[in-house]
Write a structure and sequence with these properties.
Alpha-Beta Plaits, alpha/beta, 6-stranded mixed beta sheet, about 260 residues, Septum_form_inhib_MinC_C, Pectate Lyase C-like, 4 helices
Length: about 260
């Protein structure tokens, strides 16, 4: 008599948003890439150590050969980050991804890339299971126009949770915990403690602002320009702080 086969599901497959950084390669130099990424990891190990990254080859005039790309991937690993795929590009990029046995990833947090330097690294959390995401749907509007309405989030934004205000401002009346994220295409107002990450002007609005009642942030970013804090400056820790862009420089000051 045959043993009864277990027909229950072996797994549960779901799709969600995870923390992935985008590493844009502007020149083919594996040693320089490793050195730059190691510097980023040393500067903010909680943010970048073992962070999942996507290798973006689109800035290069010519797509590197397989051996060169393999060397770049190994440089990322040696620096302490984990390459998980290639950024979507041309049909040649797709063929390269197939040969390298890597997925081609079309969407990642490219909005938070710095504008200068040979290597651009978008902020990302360490690889983790699919995080809880709180989203508010909004009608699609021209990028130049900001919707007047505001998304209000009452209470704590928990560790691993993300709140995104698409095409609008975000007001949080509570604490943003460590490893939590609040993102807005407009301004961000936090009437509580910011212990995690706040990213305003996510679609490139350089006039966006961040206002925090109790500043203890891991990271703040406006229109792709960001600052990481391993140690909060003494004059800002626990203070009411505003963040804004002046040219390409992200500035912070007490309110």
């Amino acid at each position: 008599m045959n043993a009864k086969m277990d027909t229950s599901d072996a797994c549960d497959l779901r799709f969600g948003q995870v923390g992935i950084a985008n590493v844009r390669i502007k020149r083919v130099d594996a040693a320089a890439l490793c050195e730059e990424l190691e510097r980023r990891v040393r500067t903010a190990p909680q943010l970048f150590a073992r962070a999942a990254v996507v290798l973006d080859l689109s800035p290069l005039l010519k797509l590197p050969d397989d051996g060169t790309v393999d060397a770049l991937l190994e440089a990322v690993r040696s620096a302490g980050m984990l390459p998980v795929g290639l950024a979507y590009g041309t049909s040649e990029t797709e063929a390269l991804a197939r040969r390298m046995g890597l997925p081609l990833i079309a969407k990642f947090r490219a909005a938070y890339e710095p504008a200068d330097g040979d290597v651009a690294v978008a902020p990302a959390s360490a690889p983790a299971p699919v995080r809880e995401v709180v989203r508010e749907a909004a009608p699609v509007e021209p990028a130049a126009e900001r919707v007047a309405s505001t998304l209000h989030h009452d209470g704590t934004v928990r560790s691993g949770q993300q709140v995104y205000a698409r095409d609008r401002d975000l007001v949080v009346t509570g604490t943003v915990a460590n490893a939590a994220e609040v993102i807005a295409d407009g301004d961000i107002h936090i009437y509580g403690s910011l212990r995690g990450r706040a990213m305003a002007g996510a679609q490139g609005d350089t006039d966006a602002r961040i206002f925090v009642h109790d500043f203890r942030a891991e990271l703040v970013a406006i229109a792709g320009h960001y600052r990481v804090f391993e140690q909060i400056p003494k004059d800002l820790e626990g203070q009411s702080v505003r963040c804004w862009l002046e040219g390409e420089k992200l500035l912070l000051a007490k309110l």
